[in-house]
Amino acid sequence: MDSKNGILFVVGAVLLSATLILTSRDPAQGQGKMGGGVRHTVVATDGAHLIVTDNVTDKLYFYAIDKDAKIGDELKLRGTADLSEVGKPSIKPIDAKPQK
Q: What DSSP designation does 39 have?
């Protein structure tokens, strides 16, 4: 029984070590600080608009086609919002290119 307990101890120690090594590695390039999570999340899209969050910088990006454009045309950045302000009474969006 003594050697059986020794083997179980070694197997357990190896599994624990492997788990610690795999979970403490630096994230791969492009994965950001979340370590395995996604960098961008598409919140909504309908072909004319695209709302995306950058999970690393806590920013929301809003894209839209031009007024006279058709679905599938180029989406242009219209504005951003700082998601670190979520929970405050109001959030002021940042206009990417102020309209004239």
A: S
